[in-house]
Design brief:
The protein has 15 helices and 16 strands. The protein is an alpha/beta fold. It has two domains: about 260 residues, Rossmann fold; about 90 residues, Alpha-Beta Plaits (2-Layer Sandwich), CATH 3.30.70. Strands 1, 2, 3, 4, 7, 8, 9, 10, 11 and 12 form a ten-stranded mixed sheet that branches. Strands 5-6 form a two-stranded antiparallel sheet. The longest helix is centred in the middle third of the chain and has 15 residues. Bound molecules: iron/sulfur cluster (2 copies).
């Protein structure tokens, strides 16, 4: 198990050989002629590369080229939160970046059952991912209002097809630890062959959608274990590994190995803004349940940006959003604080905002 960290940019002349070196170093030569290879970038929602929402198209191209050179046919797949996959590929720069390559680019469609272990049991996952010989996981280094950061392990949640994702948000509800447990078990079941994380233009603040702020880090991280990669990302940010809920869940399952080889020496990242909601939930543990249910930040629309496109209310797993007389109305009793609406809003019109009691409790947490 090892992690590689390198300084990088999107200049393709230097990026391509760097990606090839990383893949060679992580055992990429195991890919051969008839290997079924799935490349799983973050293709959440239509967005320009400079918005830092999606894995950069140049990284996807370099990985696809590597797979082609090994003689295999790459399938680039994800299950976006909303909108047309073809439009996302066209308007987010992937069609141009992949021009001339013999690749298949399509959304996950069919599901099959896969046992990921208790308490979830057999869950529906993308058939192509379950049957792949190699999954190459390409997450974006981003903040996440519910899960603090979305890194290697969380990126595989995209292998749950379409609205099944929303169902799982609903089933795990406001229980962030249970959701983290689900994510880790999906990772363990799919076992990605390697994970290469785009931290060249990362995202800070109110991620993971367009409400977040692009942050240039100039880093490419790779590993044959996404948990080790996530631990390394936390350390780079000066966080304890267990501050990331998925790492904590992995630790409780006995899966977190903190002793692995890191190749590459980069300085600690300073001035990286984490989402505010995540800091609220990191108070004393006995308060967590109450905080989650009653005091977590709620999604609030900016009416000047909202176009009433309907994506948020179509996606909301709890049916907590309605449009009445030209305004969005949130039912905060129903809302499970999954922040999917913030994630899928194409206008960046939704933000997680604290409640008054939430602010008071946060002050108390800080004091004690
Ligand atoms: S908040 Fe965003 S997703 Fe929801 S209706 Fe408005 S623009 Fe569309
Ligand atoms: S309103 Fe937004 S945060 Fe609340 S349940 Fe619906 S999608 Fe999740």
């Amino acid at each position: 198990m090892k992690v590689i960290i390198k300084k990088a940019s999107y200049d393709y002349e230097t990026l391509r050989p760097l990606v090839f070196d990383m893949m060679n170093s992580l055992g990429g030569d195991l890919i051969e002629n008839h290997s079924r290879v799935i490349i799983k970038p973050n293709l959440l929602v239509q967005a320009k590369p400079e918005q830092a929402v999606l894995t950069h198209p140049s990284i996807v191209r370099a990985v696809a080229e590597y797979v082609l050179e090994r003689g295999a046919h790459p399938h680039i797949c994800d299950s976006p939160g909303m909108g047309s996959f073809d439009r996302l590929i066209r308007e987010s720069g992937f069609r141009d970046a992949l021009k001339g390559l013999d690749v298949t680019c399509r959304p996950f469609k069919n599901s099959t059952h896969m046992d990921i272990g208790e308490p979830f049991g057999r869950i529906e996952m993308a058939e192509e991912a379950v049957n792949a010989d190699f999954i190459i996981n390409l997450p974006k280094f981003k903040t996440h209002s519910q899960m603090l950061l979305t890194l290697g392990v969380k990126n595989l949640f995209g292998c749950v097809v379409g609205f099944r994702k929303a169902e799982w948000h609903l089933r795990t509800g406001v229980n962030r630890d249970l959701f983290a447990c689900l994510l880790v078990q999906i990772h363990q079941a799919l076992k990605p062959f390697m994970t290469i994380m785009d931290g060249i233009l990362a995202m800070e603040g109110d991620g993971p959608g367009k409400g977040g702020t692009p942050k240039k880090l100039g880093l490419l991280l790779a590993s044959n274990n996404a948990l080790a990669l996530d631990v390394t990302a936390c350390r780079l940010l000066g966080l304890r590994p267990d501050q990331l809920p998925t790492n904590q869940a992995a630790r409780e399952m006995g899966l977190l190995d903190l002793h692995f080889k890191v190749q590459g020496n980069v300085e600690r990242i300073v001035d990286f803004k984490l989402p505010e909601s995540a800091s609220l939930i990191s108070g004393p543990r006995p308060l967590h349940g109450f905080v989650r249910r009653q005091l977590l930040q709620r999604p609030v629309p900016d009416d000047s940006l909202c176009t009433l496109c309907g994506e948020c209310w179509k996606f909301c797993p709890a049916g907590a959003i309605q449009e009445t007389s030209g305004n969005l109305k949130f039912d905060y009793d129903k809302c499970i604080r999954c922040y999917c609406c913030i994630e899928v809003c194409p206008q960046g019109a939704l933000r997680a905002r604290e409640t008054l009691p939430g602010r008071l409790v946060q002050k108390l947490i800080r004091r004690f």
